[in-house]
Give the backbone structure.
Amino acid sequence: MVLSDTDLDYDAIVIGAGISGMYQLYRLRELGFSVRVFERGTGVGGTWYWNRYPGARFDSESYSYGYSFSQELLDEWDWSERFASQPEILRYLQYVADKFDLRRDIQFSSDVKSAAYDDDTRSWQVKLADGSTYKSRFLITGVGILSQPTLPKIAGIDSFKGQSFHTSRWPHSPVDFSGKRVAVIGTGATGIQTIQEVAKSVGHLSVFQLRPEWCAPLHNSKIQPDEMEAIRANYAEMFEHCAQTAAGFIHDVDPRNTFEVSDEERYEFWERLYASPGFGIWQGNFKDILTNPEANKAISDFIADKIRERVNDPTIAEKLIPKDHGFGTKRVPLETGYYESYNQENIELIDISETPIQRITERGVLTSEREFEFDFIIYATGFDAIFGSYNRIDIHGVSERSLKEQWEEELATFLGIQTSGYPNMFMIIGPHAMAGNNPRAIEYQVNWVTELIKHMNDRGFTRAEASPQAQRDWRDYVVEQGKDLLRNEVDSWQTGINMNLEGRQTRIVGMYSGGQPSYRRRCEEVAQNGYKELNLR
Ligand code: NAP
């Protein structure tokens, strides 16, 4: 028997109190729904709650990243920097939670262990680590795509006698590195932000690098009060613009091809981009740099020369230049003085592709060359991305197999929001959804899910499940859209490759890459046609 609303603990359960979960709570409350958000941390903020490592900050312009749904919030909040740092971002999200009184429906320190759907009662039963269970009609996951950290699979990791942290599990009180010997393992966007910050105060820093990444300068600056007023006056236009760009950033791709212009014009353009703040050099570059291998090689050579100019020791410079992938085929880490860090006497780069780490010892790190002694080891080794935050929860729908097993067999979702076999479960930026400047994608998807639930509620429907055909069509479309993109030919978290996990050796297309306008168009079509792909009943 379908459970009536009065037999349920909540109309909806939301997992995660990050940017997705907080906004989903706000929107469902507007429908008059009873909602419970379960959050494993002790506070709101998701990514920005967990990633407290030194130097953590935005790579999107602060004002383009904040929520757009409340004019009051936009009027009240001033960003202090073009690319705000983690403490400011967390303060912002705490301010949002206070302003909309969100905390009263969020249960912190609540780790969701399993979620099971019962088709007879059309309800989800969610179980927490403490054994408590809760029933709801809808289950919405706001678990993020980069929230399940991975430690390296290196022998002896527990034997180290000093302090060690994964960047995403950083202590809540400041760590003082002055005069200390510190190791950073991992040189992705997180490692790079950490290294350039720790370098400012450390006694000695050893960076263990497997493969370098292509970086570009952030060019951060303070936002003066008059600038903030100008930004505020332009919010509506700016958000509308972000909705039209490929990945939700403020940067617009240049409509020209790389070799359509003279050499002089091309290099002048690239110099200008390299000297400009943010992702312009990646998202605002010639339209073919991420699809045409020759164009990609040309921009990669340009950036390689910049690295050579900035690093004094030519041998170190060469080690910092990627050889296995082209510029922009991974999300570009934005840096501030990262390359110059290697000109400091007390910073050393250890190329572990030449001298691999053999084990972590009591004192530090043993490579094939020698043992290094440390007071601290920082693991900036990334995440079990895209599915990791789902796989850690035992999610069961209408079939025998779990969601993890289903996705291991074949990764497929409908719009990255629903999965066949898991009725009434909606994902915010799930696999094969649009991401990029994430809050832009999140707000869109939360609004879409809320409208769907409202539609169901208004008509007395209690079940929504994507048809296998709709799901197959979406998967094919996602794969098709990703075909020409060089990023899908590179090992990275976006293609599902993480050397620290068992299995998954073959690349997948993890997220939708056809651009926001087409993603939104498809979502709107589905809504306008009465959500027939979701078999509402
Ligand atoms: P990541 O890009 O996956 O980088 C992980 C790093 O650890 C890589 O350098 C990897 O080397 C290395 N590594 C992994 N396992 C290792 C092992 N066993 N031994 C040695 N090295 C190992 O993770 P991330 O740096 O955390 O960044 C992930 C994403 O988060 C970024 O792409 C970005 O989207 C987001 N992010 C955004 C910001 C921001 O500015 N807003 C900041 C940080 C992160 P290989 O590459 O050689 O495998």
